[in-house]
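Q: My labmate handed me this sequence with no annotations at all. I'd like to see what the chain might look like in three dimensions before we decide whether it's worth expressing. Could you predict it?
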Amino acid sequence: MTATVNVGLGARSYDILIDNGLLDRAHECIAPLLGPRPAIIITDEEVAKTQLTRLTASLGKECHTIILPSGEASKSWRQLERLMDELLDLGVERKDKLIALGGGVIGDLVGFAASILKRGCDFIQVPTTLLAQVDSSVGGKTAINVRAGKNLVGSFHQPVRVVIDPSVLDTLPDRQMRAGYAEVVKYGLINDPAFFDWCEANARSVLARDPAALSYAIEHSVRAKAAIVAADERETDDVRALLNLGHTFGHALEADTGFSDILFHGEAVAAGIALAYGFSAKSGRCAPDASARVNAHLQAIGLPSTLEAAHVKAHGKALVAHMLHDKKMSGGTLPFILARGIGQSYVDRTVNLDEIAAFLDGAAA
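A: Here is what I predict for the chain of 365 residues:
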């Protein structure tokens, strides 16, 4: 049975559909939104090998496809320019709806392109990684990476629909599944300790792609994020900021490893969550056993929880220097998402960056 989660944003509200086999029913859940013109699908080389034919065959209409290189490097000025030129060559009109078929990189890039193409056109998210299904496809954050750091050029641009088919994860490499799981367990650690309990008991089933466990994890995560986005769409309050748990540390780790396959985004988030809890414990904000419990869970399922496991060798000051490019900097202050316990995350604007640097040096020792 198809689950429907609505993201309540007034005129920008949209539905997230979740069900096995939705990709093969695109004529029902996607085609009616497209109008009479050919569908325009943007994907990457790896997803094109496994999922593109499923989508084009099920849409039941003519399709134009644009296939971009796989990997984080595609979130760049170069690939954005290429994508825009190809879309304009196809004669895209403002009423057309672009289809983003892929993981977070494709979703972010296509969403940003849609937000600026002819001053804005609509797009549909069809996420094909666990991370994209539970996090990046929902909420309207779109961006590319630039020399100064990750996601520093972008916009808020909500999709008109998100279509989540867990069956596409059957072809996802195990490492990518684990990376995506980091964004699942994050929801328990933000404000839902009962869900963290569930994750401890069921993580292996989720990663093994057990249909019931996987569907529950996705739907629960999507409902949690939809509620947060509806309450604070543009992160002007401290509600949506909680979704950045692990990300301030994590983005610095990604920068140190060159935004490469050395460290996937979800792996960086996992290590970042462990560091956020570790710093919280070290500074007396939460009990040490909470940090130990988070570390134990991440390690048990093969996610990095230390700088060494994340292949990061930089000293603390270098990592803090990466953090200074964080888009959340305000008045020279960088807010951190820290924790008072399991499921008790909060925004802390009192953190001294020298303390962070010293903590990271200690964590690397």
